Amino acid sequence: MTEPFEPVIIGFTCNWCSYRAADLAGTARVKYPPNVRLIRLMCSGRLDPTFVLKALASGADGVMITGCHPGECHYLEQNYKAMRRYQLLKRMLSQMGVEPGRVKLVWASAAEGVRLASEITKMVEEIRALGPLGWATAGAAAALPHKSAALEVPA
Amino acid sequence: MTEKIGVYVCHCGSNIAGIVDVEGVAKWAAERLAHRGVVIARDYKFMCSSLGQELIEKDIKELGLTRVVVAACSPHLHEQTFRTACARAGLNPYLCELVSIREQVSWVHTDKSAATAKAKAVLSGGVERVIRHAPLEPLRVPIHPATLVVGGGIAGIQAALEIADSGTPVYLVEREPSIGGHMAQFDKTFPTLDCSACILTPKMVSVGTHPNITLMTYAEVTNVDGFVGNFEVTIRQKPRYVKVDLCTGCGVCEEKCPKKVIDDVFEAGMGQRKIIYRPFAQAVPKYPVLDRENCTYFLKGTCKACEKFCPTEAIDFEQKAEDITIQVGNIILATGFDLFNVRRIPQYGFGRLPNVFSSLEFERLCNAAGPTNGTIVLRDGKTTPKTVGIIHCVGSRDDNFNAYCSSICCMQSLKFAHLVRERTGAEVYNFYIDMRAPGKGYEEFYHRLLEEGVHFVRGKVAEVSDFARLPGEEGHLIVQVEDTLIGKQRRIPLDMVILSAGLEPRHDAKQVAKVFGISCSADGWYIEKHPKLDPVATMTEGIYIAGVVQGPKDIPASVAQGAAAAARVMGRIQQKEIALEPVRASIDETRCSGCRICNALCPFNAILYHADKAVSEVNPALCQGCGTCVAACPAGAISGTVFSDEQVLSQLDGLLLRNLQPVEA
Questions:
Q1: What's the structural domain count of chain A?
Q2: CATH of the domain spanning B5-138
Q3: Does B523 touch chain A (CB under 8 A)?
Q4: ipTM of the complex as predicted
């Protein structure tokens, strides 16, 4: 009898809005499923799309990207850059055969603890329905390309 | 070389221990993460207590720990606590990481085994991350002792006086010809019924004569460069067409000027002013201003009466605008508010029905120095009203306009009611939704009004019209309102209606905010650093806000905020330098190809491009550490401290438990 599939979702939060929203959900004792593990960044603009790819390649079944609402970014406009990257990332992922529902962008302000919790709950069920991604290579984590030393290019 | 990592799992009483098996998590870390460098893993009831902190300090000293991970509450609460504890024991504070297993785990999950498993994963993520932390020093920046205060209303005046009194120079920039702000327009202030000008003008005079204050009126800030401690501000001094070093303020020019226009600003359209004018008698500075747009000389080339009669030859029609650059260390924004435009509610008839007044218009009517010398009369200028209605919440608490409460209009409406009763004996009706009287003496003032026989009708007025339907309504304004306390519709005939308009941000508040690099909320008020605990600071170091610009409030609160902002600035000036969090990006020159993709991404203009070397460089004092450029660099030439790629990716590995040693069979 196999155990029910428990998805593992990595959530990227921004220090000023969405991480505080997650804190607020905690303070308000709002319950949500334990399948999401959060990484705190200073800003959603810090999110390198390779983080998302690495997360999926390392065993996560889904990724939730969160940040301040457009127009309310603590660093003025960096969440717009996150939005642009996300659009391109989604296209790339679908070309690689990853279902679009696995990577989701959710804006949450620091006051929206309850809403963030419900978004998390929703996403856990959506990923559960999609099933495990099964991308992680056995053994060592999928390596990123090695950064070679800077090359001198002749004029 | 493996680091020596100390792990501390907090019970937080039963907050964490009630759901998460904290002893189990600590034991697990000691066993399964030993190969990653964990040399000790403790669990304790309250890590943030002195005893808890001492546990960490003792271990650092005795075990030679090189990294510390605490699994407890949110970093927003105690990151500083544990960093300081590490610093006390001689470990660089940035080699400490706090991961949340309370707000993120024990408080939000009910399944104990799932919560414990997640706590282990979160802790593992923290351990992996902290291995890649680097020792950092906060950035130290010197603070220029001068301060800029923008806005010469009561909040700005208070801030300027407090800083100037402490001995350091202040520039006070105001865009109207005189300081005083809206408070100068009021007649009396609630609840004491102090004469507004009487309490304001002494402070205005202090500002005008203070040796440490450089007062620049009829001037606006056009550009701000630099960063905290070192701002370079450009101010445009508009031409008064009066030479201030020659002008004695005698007022002959104003007397002799043959042309008048409606004064839309100070008199709220209720009165007139000359073309060369002082906005009000007690204006500071005393120098008049010539309104170029309406001046006969500038329009047609004739008149020049002011120049003819000026005894000191102070009129200068050739005067030009001047751009002045100043250096300051800190900036306080106290630019105030605009009144909600009551024309936007056509049902209330403002502009269509002559005897409907806005609150500011009524203030001018009441003011002894106003267009009617303080006599309350209808628009015809002579009839005393026998019945007056005052409508609360015009444009506020209204989903169609502004959802927020403007805080002062209930008290202002009560003040109006009192003044009308006192000066005219008229019957007064206040139409309110709730009576908001929270300040000192406010509720007592409301009771006084009840005793004075003012009629209070609880209901939102549907319309004000002059269409008589019932006997007795002819020739009156009729207010149609549901009296919710008796459950009936009422039509009340009145001679005069006053609309207590709400407060709104200045019409150009967003543009001004952009000049200073701070943000506005959805309503347009400037955003404070923390709504509860830091109402006068902004997210931008060195820029403070005070008064109604931060949100609707009364005069005592504006004064308090002006003083609070001044105290923060004085604290900075006294320390002579400020330590900034070292969350910064930096560019490795050897990897930068000069593509400049990063340049355009920085909202703080912190990235400079060196054309000679064809590389970009981040200015660490301007950089706010958002990391967008770090993510964007195609060459990977930009690294960010505290949130570097290695740190985030290793935390990811830890969260997914990819760092565990396989368990021996």
A1: 1
A2: 3.40.50
A3: no
A4: 0.87
